[in-house]
Amino acid sequence: MVVADYSVSVLGKKWLDADVFELACTRPDNFSFIAGQHVTINHQGDEREYTILSPPHADQLLFLVKRINQGRLSNALAELGIGDSLSFSKAKGYLVYRPTDRPVYLVATGVGIAPFVAMAASGLKNFILLHGARELSGLYYRKELMLAASRYIPCLSGALQSEVNLLDLYRGHVTDYIDRNLKPGAYDFYLCGSQAMIHDMTHLLDQHYPGTRIYSEVFN
Fold first, then answer.
1. H or E segment at 195?
2. Is the pLDDT of residue 1 over 80?
3. Residues 130, 190: one domain?
4. Are residues 127 and 179 in the same domain?
5. The domain that contains 133 carries what CATH number?
């Protein structure tokens, strides 16, 4: 059991689709973090790590939560109302941006986009973002990310229900895109998403792009 360092109040929820929502909470006066870090949220004995969606200068804290059928905590968070309380740990984690003169690729699937939203809101520019989802509705925050990235590449792996008109749209997985399109060289890659994606992408980069630095965090 993680000892709770902070207690906050819920300010509201914003649903992004049927299963994913943005949870807004108050921010303790003495709470500090770096964009990309996460906390362990604890509520009624259940706990799970969630990346902070908001930038370090924000007055409130935002979290991107995916409601899972058998997920006790995610379902409990979905039922919280304004003014309800929850607790969490100090910020931790190493998926934070490191200044570099190399090309920077951010790669996310699903709600793994959260740390990159925080980085972009903190002022990070000149990165290439691969954003993987099954359907268009899973490309959370794409408008904000398109403005921050030097290039935003949506990768849709599911069947499209209607015509999708997106610049640089790639039909397939993020790993397929890199395998087919990335030129030889040394890069800095930041990966956040499913364990399978991180495993496959790490193997691909290690095998074909020696010298590339990889920073990753599983975010199911």
1. helix 195-208
2. no
3. yes
4. yes
5. 3.40.50.80
Q: What is the mean pLDDT of residues 31-54?
A: 94
Assess whether pLDDT exceeds 70 at residue 187: yes
For residues 187 and 104, the answer to whether their CB atoms sit within 8 Å is: yes
Range of the domain at 33: 6-88
Q: How far apart are CA 42 and CA 44, in angstroms?
A: 7
Query: Which residue bears the tokens 């990753």?
Result: 216
The number of beta carbons lying within 10 Å of the beta carbon of residue 56 is: 16
Specify the residue for token string 């015509």: 163
Name the residue among 219, 181, 182 with its Cα closest to residue 37: 219
At residue 164, the pLDDT reads: 72
Among 54, 88, 122, which residue terminates a domain? 88
Residues 11 and 64 in one domain: yes
- Band (184; pLDDT cuts 50, 70, 90): very high
pTM (predicted TM-score): 0.93
